[in-house]
Write a structure and sequence with these properties.
It is built from 8 helices and 4 strands; from the N terminus they run ααβαααβαβαβα. With 216 residues, it is of the alpha+beta class. The protein has a single domain, classed as NADH Oxidase (3-Layer(aba) Sandwich), CATH 3.40.109. A 4-stranded antiparallel β-sheet has the order 1-2-4-3, with helices on both faces. The longest helix has 20 residues. The radius of gyration is 18 Å and the shape is globular. The protein binds flavin mononucleotide (FMN). The site of flavin mononucleotide (FMN) has 12 residues, from β3.
Length: 216
């Protein structure tokens, strides 16, 4: 048995992977565990398409071409949350040695999203387009179960909503049917230990900021 608390603490976003392949048996074990995630009415709305080898490389090429022509936009955030994104950027780009005002290198670093940060496996996380927020929540519970199950097996990940900027490219490269909405990507592989940004501990608010109790 793997230790859940240790897996929760060990999980972090990896932004540079080794080319070392991920054993399919470990991926299958993690997928079998993630399948046990709860979902609204037990509809199990998560749909995952994995690409590795040639399809992965083709997807990378198509996404990179597009991202270079039409730079990715940042997903909108209400103003009250902007500072989190700024703090994260300062930590991640800081660890990469990229200054706050170095727009060119920040843009180049952003492109690594479309190389899946070098991960040998990329998953595309989808859900039926007619489903709603509660079902997206179920997909999220699935994804966290999958990510923790991978972490427990020494496999690193990065959830990548950035990939959803170009859904039509992903759809056409991986033959994803039109009724599936593309929610995000998941880079899967082994962390490059020599990349400083892979050793960041991104801070969190105190629990009391996010959770309140009423009554005793
Ligand atoms: C839904 C979701 C989408 C994310 N998209 C991206 C992304 O596109 N690119 C990226 O580098 N990190 C992405 N991340 C990683 C977050 O930046 C990261 O989880 C957060 O900053 C906390 O850091 P940690 O995962 O290392 O604990 C995403 C995470 C989640 C949950």
């Amino acid at each position: 048995m793997f230790d859940l608390e240790q897996a929760i603490k060990n999980r972090h976003s990896t932004r540079k992977f080794l080319s070392q392949p991920v054993p399919r048996a470990l991926l299958d074990e993690a997928l079998a565990l993630a399948q046990l995630a709860p979902s609204n009415s037990n509809i199990q709305p998560w749909r995952l398409v994995f690409a590795q080898g040639v399809p992965r490389d083709r997807l990378q090429e198509a996404l990179l071409n597009q991202a270079k022509q039409q730079p990715p936009y940042s997903f909108g955030l209400p103003e009250a949350f902007w500072h989190y994104r700024q703090e994260l950027g300062a930590q991640v780009y800081g660890a990469m040695g990229i200054a706050r005002d170095d727009k060119e290198n920040r843009q180049l670093a952003l492109l690594h999203n479309y190389e899946f940060f070098g991960a040998p496996v990329v998953g595309i996380v989808c859900m039926h387009q007619d489903l709603g927020v509660a079902d997206a929540l179920s997909v999220g519970m699935y994804l966290q179960t999958l990510v923790l199950s991978l972490t427990a097996r020494g496999i690193d990940t990065c959830v990548e909503v950035s990939l959803a900027a170009y859904p039509e490219i992903i759809r056409s490269e991986l033959n994803i049917p039109p009724e599936l909405s593309i929610i995000c990507g998941l880079a899967v592989g082994y962390s490059d230990p020599d990349f400083p940004a892979n050793h960041l501990h991104i801070s969190r608010e105190a629990v009391e900021k996010n959770v309140t109790f009423q009554g005793t």
